[in-house]
Amino acid sequence: MNDLYAVIFAGGVGSRLWPVSRVSSPKQVKPFLGSSDTLIQRTWRRVRRVLPAENIYLSTTADYAEAIAAQLPELSKTNLIIEPELRNTCPAIGLATGIIHKRHPGAIVMNVWADHHYGLEDAYVETIRKSYTIIQKHPEQIMSVGLHIEYPSTALGYLEVEMSPADEDGALKVKRFVEKPDVARAGEFMRAGNYFWNPALFMWRAGHMLELYRQHVPETYQGLAEIIAAWDTAEQDTVLRKIYPGLTKIALEYAVLEKGPSMLLLPARLGWRDIGNWQAVHDVLQSDGEGVATKGKAVTIEAKDVLVFNEDDRKLVTVVGLENVAVINTSDAVLVIKKSRDQDVKKLVEKMEKEEKLRQYL
Predict the structure, then answer these.
(1) Which domains does the chain have, with CATH numbers?
(2) Model's pTM, two decimal places?
(3) What beta strand segments (E) does 166-270 contain?
């Protein structure tokens, strides 16, 4: 797989994981999942099972580049892409794809997210290898991975497929994307059997993806083309800072993938969670039949479906007789929330942003 390159995207703040994830110390550089390894270190180690270090790129912002690089000694400086500001996934993925295409014509690119967890790492490695085999046979397709639905989530995207195999390796043809349905529709999708969770684990031939950008987002394509032309020259940073902040802020799914390019899906079970909220942290850490999950100094009695995440080892956090609750403790802030409302942490952060005296806690 010498022509396969991975790009790890690690630029987000992770506001739904406040108060542990902060602007100055975002979730990707924090050890969330029961070990001393941070999310970015776990991701790097997993991708390294598939690819050599020189085939792995990382995209982030200037605010986090130094901290991330310090945690990844194998990461080449030339493979570190520093975005001047976050413009969502369409510009970020296009930039990384274009850089790799310029340096390695004919390359195949897969995108990787720094905050994703795969409990079944052997299955993850096998799925990547199988996806690569399929795209070798179908270079004008975009490969996606579809995860079997575990529960009717309203926080995830879904992929609808045709159930007749489109490839001898078991790939299915993607019909459409559905983003974050309500609970009734999510239940229908689960019962229907031809919908899968979308972990946004995609693979494509770099030249093919750039052609899709040219067709569907021509202004973004033109801006990226100017940046890429200057890449690896003395003008690289100047052109990047001039053009990139003006690119349309939009997700790849909306900008390109929903416009109808041919896509194949490989079904898989990978023990996946997007570590973007406290429910996901709970799912990975829970260790008993009552759904209680703890990290740090914590004691619970008669608790059910509870997460206690204590980052301050000077304190003991105790929970008695509670259900569907997350208690998050740091050195300067405590969050207590119904676990079923963990998506509302972002609203809390937005409220704090508006009050000057509270901004120190962000």
Answers:
(1) 4-274 (3.90.550.10), 278-361 (no CATH)
(2) 0.93
(3) 172-179, 195-198, 202-205, 263-268
